[in-house]
Amino acid sequence: MTKEINEIIDAYKQAKQKGIKTALATVVYVEGSSYRRPGARMLVEEDGRLTGAISGGCLEGDALRKALLAIHQNQNKLVTYNTLDEDDVAFGVQLGCNGIVHILFEPIDTEDENNPIALLEQSQLYRRETVLATLFSLHYFHGHQPGTCFFLDKESSYNKIENAGLLTSVQTDAASVLETGSSFIKEYKEFELTAFVELLQPPVSLIIVGAGNDAFPLVEMTKVLGWQITVADGRATHANAQRFPNVHQLIAGKPAEVIQQLAIDEWTVFLLMSHNYKYDLAMLKLLLPINCR
Predict the structure, then answer these.
(1) Do 149 and 119 touch, CB atoms closer than 8 A?
(2) For position 254, what pLDDT does the model report?
(3) Beta-sheet pairing, 228-233 with 205-209
(4) What are 151-180's pLDDT values in tens digits?
(5) Which pTM was predicted?
(6) DSSP assignment of the chain, as one string?
(7) 190 class by beta-carbon count within 10 Å (0-12 exposed, 13-18 middle, 19+ buried)
């Protein structure tokens, strides 16, 4: 998910530079089966370019039309795809899942410093857990859809929720998400709104200790997952940018020197594969007191 979010942020920045209008499509609620779960996102540009995905490919065509309508009308829109309907040609596509998918389309205002993309970018700036709350109405599809309007991490918060009672409820639920480490859907009946209260976690930071040739495919696989990759080795001839041009960090040095250059947190994972027994053993002795994964 982090990889998709970062790709959406990059695509949005490029579109903004070119003056291209965009909308963010987010799966906010699913009943039954669906290819993507709540939190799946797709950036739609007015020229038709798509970044990310909200389904296995069956909804993207119609979603493009809905997103362009949201951009044209400059209004958030909630769209429901009922894939339980046997006559799924009504959507102009063949739907392969067996459920109901609710997707929120939010046109992005580039002048708003706290638009949905900006809040997503804020969630990626620091290696700490973040909660985003997206509000929508399942009762009044053509009415007001508040959208992504609340941000919380352990250091800061932001909201554009005008109702004090609703804000209190969202704040309480967001704090609960941070405490439990799990996203959830919450219905606020008194306000006739539903919230997708979403936990966003930093990507895994994988420290590959060993820059041999067998690290090449590992780096490629973990790049697909969107992990942050550090390659460390005692040999500068192996841990260098020519061999590993696209990793987050390269460190050549003794185990103690490597540890000193790392920011280790609860999402950091070490893999010892230098094929040098003494080097791996020295590194292991340093890691055991840290209690890292």
Answers:
(1) no
(2) 97
(3) parallel
(4) 999 899 999 999 999 999 999 999 999 999
(5) 0.85
(6) -HHHHHHHHHHHHHHHHHT--EEEEEEEEEEE--SS-TT-EEEEETTS-EEE-SSSSSSHHHHHHHHHHHHHHT--EEEEEETT-S-GGGGTS---S-EEEEEEEEE--TT-TTSHHHHHHHHHHSSS-EEEEEEE-SS-TTS---EEEEEEESS-EEE----HHHHHHHHHHHHHHHHHT--EEEEEGGGTEEEEEEEE-PPPEEEEE--STTHHHHHHHHHHHT-EEEEEES-TTTSSTTT-TT-SEEEES-HHHHHHT----TTEEEEE--S-HHHHHHHHHHHGGGT--
(7) exposed
Taking residue 41's Cβ as centre, other Cβ atoms within 10 Å add up to 23
User: Residue 245: how many CB atoms within 10 A of its CB?
Assistant: 9
Q: Cβ–Cβ contacts within 10 Å for residue 279, how many?
A: 20
β partners of residue 138: none
Q: State yes or no: pLDDT of 271 exceeds 60.
A: yes
